[in-house]
Design a protein that fits this description.
alpha+beta; six-stranded antiparallel beta sheet; five-stranded antiparallel beta sheet; 12 helices; globular
Length: 552
């Protein structure tokens, strides 16, 4: 242990006692342990004697029990789905590492995600917690060349330059053989794996456009297309070799020779998420109720598409029996999904909702600032919101009903852990199947609203470009539908009046109807989007606001 202390002092950092826990990790209300049951709160508190509370957010994260043979790029890959990684310190001799994210928001999202779902590197569980340190200073340290080279390579990938260190590249800058389409084989298929489960797992790494599933050589396989080859690269790096369920359903992932998928039908076997108008196809079998009953209570087995049938696994179940366990709210393997051989039911730690549910429970809201319209606009970035209910007696909680389970999963992935009006949002699947409207004469104070027929739905038009422009919350916003008379100063003033700090602005050079605006933080951008999306700019133009993947 003294060696680690020496290493940390050499970095120019004061060691915090949260860095060297022998077995358990505490993230807020959750406690994880690598080998022993969670200890009582009293014992936990004795282990942490740092200057700050162990659950106090920091953009520096401490990783424990990393494999000795792991590469810098593999450690960095854990943080990439959540934002830019700005620094890395590897302490391989102690099986530890420190990862610095570009923002505290990104670190919060990462910790929230990995709290109920332990990530794995080279089939070993890795434990993540906030560090006591606010930044990593590694400039004067020896043996940092590999870490810095890996960081530079990753940053080059994200900006369209190079590939990861050690990966041969083609002239186009992407690793050789890499496309945006992955070929996925699921080995040891003891429990059903559906298209919805694959979507939920792989969507963590980027926008999934299309999925086709099929059986070949008596194996369940899938082709999955991302919007960007870089997303495919990181998904392969993080998920190849992981188990979807404990000790079974192992993912084997490679790049496909195909550059794009052609999907004709939206059903249990194939889906184009940009074309919800596609037919389901003739002769599709319906869900077998006897098989559904064998897998748990009604509601556990469901499908967001009418008439869709699930995949019949090659092992343990009759062929042609249909199952669809939609949108399991966990990802990265083994996906913290424990199974019961008696019922086949999914049991997901930390999640009490029904898989496949389109209703979300949003908690830790600021009751003085939030409104149903605000939640409608924010969650509407990731799907079409049908109803919103803020709890009458507990206004920091709300229910948000999306159009389907896929959209609710997407919203949960992107918005859980984000800050809004000074509070960190918690987004989980609800136990409720629908949001009930108040009965006539029932007191509600306008806290429940029905948006089923709202003209502001972004995804009601089949094949809309909005399906391909879904991005995590960011400090840079994309603005569109700007009338010719509006100037740079007009828009800067508009956003400044909401309390935002405008850092940068630019119109698109070939189209002044669109612009990018960079604000002071992700939280400011979220609040500005809520307040200014659909704002009337005059001349019958209403401003459209969304998150951008670009920076100015």
């Amino acid at each position: 242990m003294d060696g680690v202390v020496t290493d940390l002092i050499a970095v120019g950092l004061k060691r915090g006692s949260d860095e060297l826990l022998p077995s358990g990790i505490t993230y807020g209300p959750f406690t994880m342990s690598s080998s022993t049951p969670a200890t009582a709160n009293g014992n936990d508190s004795k282990k942490f004697k740092g200057d700050r509370s162990p659950c106090s957010p920091s953009r520096v994260l401490h990783l424990r029990k990393i494999p000795n043979d792991v590469t810098e790029a593999e450690v960095i890959s854990l943080g990439l789905p959540f934002g830019k990684v700005t620094n890395l310190l590897m302490l391989k001799g102690k099986s530890q590492a420190f990862l610095e994210m570009a923002s505290e928001e990104a670190a919060v999202t990462m910790v929230n995600y990995y709290t109920p779902v332990t990530p794995h590197l080279r089939s070993q569980p890795v434990y993540i917690q906030y560090s006591n340190h606010r930044e990593l200073k590694t400039d004067n340290l020896p043996n940092q060349a590999r870490a810095q080279a890996a960081l530079q390579a990753v940053n080059a990938v994200q900006s369209g330059g190079l590939a990861l260190a050690g990966v041969p590249t083609a002239d186009g800058g992407l690793p050789l053989g890499q496309s945006s389409v992955l070929r996925i084989i699921v080995e040891n298929l003891f429990y059903p794996v559906t298209l919805e489960v694959l979507y939920q797992i792989f969507s963590k790494f980027g926008t999934v456009l299309k999925i086709i599933t099929f059986t070949k050589n008596n194996q369940f396989q899938a082709l999955l297309q991302y919007s960007d080859p870089v997303n495919a690269h990181y998904a392969k790096m993080a998920l190849d070799g992981q188990n979807i369920y404990n000790a079974c359903c192992t993912l084997r992932i490679d790049f496909s020779k195909l550059t794009s998928l052609n999907v004709k039908y939206n059903n249990d076997k194939s889906r184009d998420f940009t074309r919800l108008d596609l037919p389901s196809g003739d002769g599709q079998p319906s869900i077998d109720p006897t098989m559904a009953a064998a897998f748990g209570t009604p509601g556990i087995i469901s499908s967001p598409y009418a008439g869709a049938a699930g995949f019949a696994p090659a092992i343990g179940f009759p062929q042609a029996a249909g199952l669809s366990v939609s949108a399991v709210p966990s990802a990265l393997g083994p996906l913290a999904i424990t199974t019961s051989a008696m019922t086949g039911r999914l049991a997901i730690p930390g999640v009490t909702g029904i898989p496949g549910n389109s209703v979300l429970l949003v908690s830790n809201l600021n009751p003085d600032a939030i409104t149903p319209d605000g939640l409608f606009i924010l969650f509407g970035v990731y799907g079409d919101v049908h109803r919103v209910k803020i709890m009458f007696n507990k206004k920091e909680n709300a229910l948000v009903q999306m159009a389907d389970a896929t959209q609710s999963q997407l919203a949960m992935n992107h918005l859980n852990g984000q800050k809004l009006y000074g509070k960190v949002l918690r987004v989980t699947l609800s136990k409720h199947q629908t949001v009930q409207l108040p009965r006539e004469g029932q007191e509600d104070q306008g806290l429940t609203k029905d948006y089923s027929n709202s003209p502001l739905h972004r995804f009601k038009k089949p094949g809309s470009k909005n399906f391909q422009n879904i991005f995590p919350p960011s400090a840079t916003l994309h603005l569109s539908n700007i009338p010719p008379s509006i100037t740079v100063e007009d828009l800067k003033s508009l956003f400044g009046n909401t309390g935002c700090n405008v850092k940068n602005f630019k119109f698109f050079p070939k189209d002044r109807k669109m612009a990018l605006i960079q604000l002071g933080s992700v939280e400011e951008a979220i609040q500005a989007l809520i307040e200014l999306h659909n704002h009337n700019l005059g001349e019958n133009h209403h401003l459209r606001v969304s998150f951008s993947k670009s920076t100015i």
